Task: inverse folding
């Protein structure tokens, strides 16, 4: 017999569930694509990217044959670019396997897929009995059951995962998981939850004790790093120099103009180069970092000698490469002048 909590969530979802295009299909490719895009992205922004990806690469075979640069270019602006690289690699995994994996363990073998994403794909595409546990689920469960164990501790993760599995209706996993996602996103929101018309008010411990704003509990242990970058857009004979960022740092695999950190100017910047300022102190915030960037336009009369990692391209072609959003902003400022 289903708990009253589970029954309420299923009923609420049937009446209030959001319309989303990837919910109009059981195509595991479309569902997997949506889940990867939405891992660190709001639905309002992610939907347009999903539609573009589906239009350009309507099936996993098409995505697998794309180049990584093409995928990164289409992903530009979404951030967390490792998702795009993993998406491309996983598409090739699926094609090599000859079918889309249809068990939780197999789905978890895909590059970039963890417990939550595997449960979401498995339950929605194949109705597998696996409970999703994300920020929305933590919030709804913590408030309703009055749980103050921090959600970002090992103990908390085990506790909430066990509770989520216990409440999961085995034959209605798809509707229930999507209901929990939507309930947290629409009804039991982080700020100003809609308690006045919530169907769970009578049994909600946080509402009863006035602790809605206190739950869920999360330990604060995130350290923000600050970095200062200096970009040099080199213009020589109609060309400009860019290089691909390497592994182990932000924006892995994306392209950018000549960049350095620290004081002074690069050795190749000689007196015969015309140097002009594009922008100073542009701020760009990432999850774990705050970046500030200065950018300069360098018009060179002779070809500067740069490290081997840099390539020369026609300046007009730079937008054809996958570039970080910060670089895109700086380019906009340069061409606006």
Result:
């Amino acid at each position: 017999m289903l708990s009253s909590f589970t029954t309420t969530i299923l009923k609420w979802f049937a009446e209030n569930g959001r319309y989303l295009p990837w919910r109009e299909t059981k195509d595991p490719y479309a569902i997997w694509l949506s889940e990867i895009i939405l891992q660190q992205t709001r639905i309002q922004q992610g939907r347009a990217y999903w539609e573009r990806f589906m239009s350009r690469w309507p099936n996993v075979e098409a995505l697998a044959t794309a180049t990584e640069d093409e995928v990164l270019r289409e992903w530009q602006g979404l951030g967390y670019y490792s998702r795009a690289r993993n998406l491309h690699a996983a598409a090739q995994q699926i094609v090599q396997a000859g079918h889309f994996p249809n068990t939780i363990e197999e789905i978890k073998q895909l590059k970039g897929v963890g417990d939550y994403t595997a449960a979401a794909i498995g339950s929605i595409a194949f109705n597998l009995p696996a409970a999703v546990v994300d920020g929305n689920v933590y919030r709804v469960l913590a408030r309703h059951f009055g749980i103050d164990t921090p959600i970002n501790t090992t103990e908390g993760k085990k506790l909430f995962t066990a509770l989520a599995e216990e409440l999961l209706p085995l034959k209605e996993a798809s509707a229930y998981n999507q209901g929990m996602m939507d309930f947290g996103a629409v009804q039991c929101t982080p700020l100003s939850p809609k308690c006045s018309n919530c169907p769970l008010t009578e049994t909600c411990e946080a509402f009863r004790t006035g602790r809605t704003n206190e739950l869920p509990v999360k330990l604060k242990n995130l350290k923000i790093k600050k970095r200062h970058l200096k970009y040099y857009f080199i213009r020589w004979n109609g060309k400009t120099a860019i290089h691909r960022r390497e592994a182990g740092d932000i924006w892995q695999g994306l392209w950018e103009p000549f960049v350095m950190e620290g004081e002074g100017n690069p050795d190749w910047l000689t007196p015969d180069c015309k140097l002009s300022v594009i922008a100073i102190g542009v701020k760009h915030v990432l999850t774990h970092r705050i970046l500030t960037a200065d950018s300069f336009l360098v018009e060179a009369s002779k070809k500067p000698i740069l490290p081997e990692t840099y390539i020369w391209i026609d300046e007009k072609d730079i937008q054809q490469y996958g570039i970080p959003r910060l670089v895109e902003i700086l380019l906009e400022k340069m061409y606006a002048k």
Observations:
- The chain has a mean pLDDT of 93.
- The first strand starts at residue 225 and ends at 235.
